[in-house]
Amino acid sequence: MIELETEILDCVDARNDQRSYNKHNGDGNFTVTGKPKSEEHKSKLRKWNLGRKMSIDARAKMSEVRTGKIHKLVICPHCGKEGGDNNMYRYHFEKCKTLGNL
Ligand SMILES: [Zn+2]
Fold first, then answer.
1. How far does the centroid of ligand 1 lie from the alpha carbon of residue 95, in Å?
2. Which of 82, 72, 76 is nearest to 95 (CA)?
3. Residue 14 lies in domain
4. First and final CA of the chain: distance in angstroms?
5. Alpha-carbon distance 67 to 69, whole Å?
6. How many domains does the chain have?
7. What is the pLDDT of residue 28?
8. How far is the CA of 99 from the centre of ligand 1 (A)?
9. 99 assigned to some structural domain
10. How much distance in Å is there from the Cα of 75 to the middle of ligand 1?
11. What is the pLDDT along the chain (102 residues), one digit of tens a residue?
12. How far is ligand 1, taken at its centre, from the CA of residue 77, in Å?
């Protein structure tokens, strides 16, 4: 039965048909890359990932990928400190201590 469905989906090329709800041709290979996610989909993903524990191996891989990444240098207009854009936007600019808004 699954073979017949796969054959039919292949015939109509359901994977690439915009009108099709099937995002694969019965082979399980989904091709939804590049398609923007809806807000409903994003909230479901958020709910699924919230509080999810990652294995030590997975965390080590993520760390390895991010180690040595070169960040764009930016200068805070309030205190003049220079640093990588990731943490500078977190602690400086609108949130700079020299503004006295802490
Ligand atoms: Zn600053």
1. 7
2. 76
3. 1-33
4. 65
5. 6
6. 2
7. 66
8. 8
9. yes
10. 8
11. 677 887 888 888 777 777 877 767 766 666 556 678 899 999 999 999 899 898 999 999 999 998 988 889 999 999 999 999 989 999 999 999 998 865
12. 7
In degrees to the nearest 10, what's the CA dihedral of 88, 89, 93, 99?
A: -80
**Residue 74 covered by a domain:** yes
Question: Is residue 93 within 8 Å of 77, Cβ to Cβ?
Answer: yes
Phi-psi group of 68: left, alpha or beta (phi > 0 → left; psi -120 to 50 → alpha; rest → beta) = left
Ligand 1 centroid distance, CA of 76 (Å): 5
Give the integer Cα–Cα distance in Å for 82 and 71. Answer: 12
Judge whether 93 lies within some domain: yes
